[in-house]
Specification:
The structure holds 2 protein chains of 2 kinds. Chain A is mostly helical. Helix content of chain A is 72%, strand content 4%. Chain A contains 14 helices and 4 strands. Chain A has helices at residues 2-12, 16-38, 45-70, 78-94, 99-123, 128-147, 161-164, 188-206, 208-218, 220-225, 230-256, 267-277, 289-308, 313-336, and strands at residues 166-167, 170-173, 179-183, 186-187. In chain A, the strands form 2 sheets. In chain A, strands 1-4 form a two-stranded antiparallel sheet. Chain A has a two-stranded antiparallel sheet with strand order 2-3. Chain B is of the alpha/beta class. Chain B has 2 domains: 1-87 and 168-261, Rossmann fold (3-Layer(aba) Sandwich), CATH 3.40.50; 94-165, no CATH class. Helices cover 31% and strands 24% of the residues of chain B. Chain B has helices at residues 50-57, 80-85, 103-107, 122-136, 152-165, 182-197, 209-215, 238-246, and strands at residues 12-21, 24-34, 39-43, 65-70, 73-75, 88-91, 170-174, 201-205, 218-223, 226-232. In chain B, the strands form 2 sheets. In chain B, strands 6-7-8-3-9-10 form a 6-stranded mixed sheet, with helices on both faces. Chain B has a 4-stranded antiparallel sheet with strand order 2-1-4-5, covered by helices on one side. The mean pLDDT of chain B is 86. Classes of the chains: A mainly alpha, B alpha/beta. Chain A binds chain B through residues 16, 206-208, 211-212, 214-215, 217-219, 221-228, 285-286, and chain B through 58, 60, 79-81, 84, 90, 92, 94-101, 105-106, 109-112, 114, 118-120, 146, 162. Chain B: Pfam families: ABC_tran. Chain B: This is D-xylose transport system ATP-binding protein. Chain B: It comes from Pontivivens marinum. Chain B: Keywords: ATP-binding, Nucleotide-binding, Repeat, Sugar transport, Transport. Chain B: Residues 12-249 form the ABC transporter domain.
Chain lengths: 337, 261
């Protein structure tokens, strides 16, 4: 009898990935606490929204990256695919296409790049690292070649709507003729991130494709012998990652209201770091969207808070590097138990 | 050599199966058949081609040439799904479990139960898995733990449950008791007898001659990729089998032993 009660008690304690997510969440709260203490401007509504806005791009990339990492792969091409998607959308707008379909085509471009990744990995049997490294250079090369490395600007006000607009924004015209912002509103990129994260988590947890993604990462041969279409599952994951990179490209370029073909360099590393901090294992089979979102916000808050505290960009890189290694180390300790 | 006591049609006929990896002939012209309610032991030392032969039947490996006939029709087993469609289920030596998923997820892997909206039906999968596993091992409780944390015996039980849950007609068991303790081994033996009574045909790959003599109706011995003999179990003893496994031939003075007694 004492044995069973003890066991029941242990059930209440979070285990494994839940524990990791909890510790990541605590880290995030701790960071927010520290930065709020050191910089009074950090804990304002406006800065909160800025963090949301800045994190949404990394967050969108991290959703796709998490799916790929759970399959046991990696996608190094997302930063370049983001740029290429923006370039395609920008060029289509310049060619006279309205903004909405041009942006859809941008996302489709990302999806096609992801599909190519998936096909190269499954049909040509090239490891994900090499295949997506190749795609990283190819996509960046196409983006630079198409634009001559020059930014595309004057894309019209509508192009900036997605990245700069906000829901429930309340602006009041004052007597002196200047507008006064009563409530800055919830930025569209943040809403988009929440929608995509919920969709991603739903697909991973509640749908067959998610179950198959986990099984492929856990034991590819077992998945194949169990009748899982491993190739199709992998292709699906890389295509999703590419399409999300395209979407992130739309958000980023829209925020800048300019298409920059050399935007998004090294973003893949932030996305990978977010996934890993959130508990995804590069060995495959483990990971969650909620964890990766916490990871993305840890990186976002860290960047923002260090900026507010006046830390140089170089020191920021060092700190984020240490955080990534620390997160993986904690994961190792967890797995050894 | 071939016995003709079986009157029914064979469940499975493998005819002149060949498998080549580059210049290596892993399986060379092997023919074997399996009747309903029969256990056929597939023996041979490591690398004799027995696992290879069985993997071709379970759709995990393509064959270079030869025919597989299931219930009188020639079939092409290109993927494990194809084999399952014809009621051929396999318990792999490696168990083929996804370590990070729980027992129910593994049991239904590739054949998930879904709700009306196409979502995974976790409740039904768990209750079905609980019933299926309880039949094999009443003490199986930790259904929601990832299978990596389960014991070898429990993992084996999941692999077995997965094969029989879906109404197999032909069961391939590749070293099913290798990871098991004595009581669990006895459980697998009981299960084999029960499945046999239900009319399921079983190919049993085993190194344990004791098991083979207890459970099998016939044995087939492979040596260097060839079938060196298929016998009724009464006609051979352990020494004959060992001779076939090692030398590939019967002892010189051999005659069907079943007829003497």
């Amino acid at each position: 009898m004492p044995d069973t009660t003890k066991k029941q008690k242990l059930r209440f304690l979070p285990t494994g990935s839940a524990l990791h997510r909890l510790s990541a969440l605590l880290t995030l709260l701790l960071l927010i606490g520290v930065f709020a203490f050191t910089s009074p401007a950090f804990l304002s509504v406006n800065n909160g929204l800025t963090v949301l806005l800045q994190t949404s791009v990394i967050g969108l990339l991290a959703i796709g990256m998490t799916m790929v990492i759970i399959t046991g792969g990696i996608d190094l091409s997302v930063g370049s695919v983001l740029a290429l998607s923006g370039v395609i959308a920008g060029l289509l707008i310049k060619a006279g296409l309205p903004v909405a379909p041009a942006m859809v085509m941008g996302v489709v471009t990302g999806g096609v790049c992801g599909l190519m990744n998936g096909l190269i990995i499954t049909k040509m049997r090239i490891t994900p690292f090499v295949a997506t490294l190749g795609m990283m250079m190819i996509a960046r090369g196409i983006a630079l070649q198409l634009t001559g490395a020059a930014p595309i600007s004057r894309l019209g006000e509508a192009f900036g709507w997605l990245g700069n607009g906000a829901l429930f924004r309340l602006v009041e015209m004052q007597d002196n003729g200047f507008p006064r912002v009563i409530f800055p509103g919830i930025p569209y990129p943040a809403i988009l991130l929440v929608i995509m994260a919920i969709l991603g988590a739903y697909l991973l947890q509640r749908r067959q494709i998610g179950r198959h993604i986990f099984s492929v990462g856990s034991n590819e041969e077992a998945a194949r012998l169990s009748g899982v279409n491993v190739d199709r599952t992998n292709i699906w994951a890389y295509t999703a990652s590419g399409a999300l990179a395209g979407l992130a490209g739309m958000v980023l370029m829209s925020r800048l209201v300019t298409v920059q073909p050399n935007e998004g360099v090294m973003y893949e590393l932030d996305a990978i770091a977010a996934s890993v901090i959130g508990g995804a294992s590069l060995m495959g089979g483990v990971g969650s969207i909620s964890g990766s979102m916490i990871g993305a916000f840890i990186i976002g808050v860290l960047r923002n808070g260090l900026n507010m505290a006046g830390t140089s960009a170089f020191i920021q890189q060092i700190i984020i590097g240490i955080v990534v290694i620390g997160a993986v180390y904690i994961d190792q300790i967890r797995n050894r138990k | 050599m071939l016995d003709t006591t079986h009157t029914g049609a064979p469940l499975v006929q493998m005819r002149d199966i060949r498998k080549q990896f580059g210049g290596v002939h892993a399986v060379q012209g092997v023919s074997v058949d399996l009747f309903p309610g029969e256990v056929v032991g597939v023996l041979g030392h490591n690398g004799a081609g027995k696992s290879c032969l069985m993997r071709m039947l379970s759709g995990a490996m393509s064959l270079t040439s030869g025919d597989i006939v299931v219930n009188g029709t020639k079939v092409e087993l290109k993927t494990p799904q194809d084999a399952r469609k014809y009621g051929i289920e396999t318990i792999y030596q490696t168990l083929a479990l996804a370590d990070h998923l729980d027992a129910a997820a593994n049991l239904f892997l590739g054949r998930e139960l879904k709700t009306r909206f196409g979502n995974l039906d976790e409740t039904r999968m768990h209750s079905e898995a609980r019933d299926a596993l309880a039949q094999l091992n009443p003490n199986f409780k930790n259904l929601k733990d990832p299978v990596a944390s389960l014991s070898g015996g429990q993992r084996q039980v999941i692999a077995i449950a997965r094969a029989i849950y879906f109404q197999a007609k032909v069961l391939i068991m590749d070293e099913p008791t290798a990871a098991l303790g004595p009581s669990e081994t006895a459980m697998v033996a009981d299960l084999t007898v029960k499945l046999k009574q239900e009319g399921i045909g079983i190919f049993l790959i085993s190194h344990d001659l004791h098991d083979v003599f207890d459970l099998c109706d016939r044995v087939m011995v492979m040596n260097k990729g060839c079938n060196v003999g298929t016998f009724k179990i009464e006609d051979v003893n352990k020494d004959d089998i060992l001779s076939l496994i090692i030398k590939g031939t019967l002892p010189d003075d051999w005659e069907p032993r079943g007829q003497n007694t």
